[in-house]
Target: 2-hydroxymuconate tautomerase
Amino acid sequence: MPTIVVKIFEGRSNETKREYAKALTEASTRVLGCDAGAVDVIFEEVKRSDWATGGVLWSERD
Model:
């Protein structure tokens, strides 16, 4: 409790993901009152060609 799933475009560094996971964990412990060891963060990397917003693939945006 809790499990946080983060979908992001592929290519972020491990350092960036580590920093974000730490921030999410700290926020979860503060707001939910849980122990940091109970917080799971799962990163799912997505290709830009597999993500569309407003009907337009991100791989086709300028």
The mean pLDDT is 97.
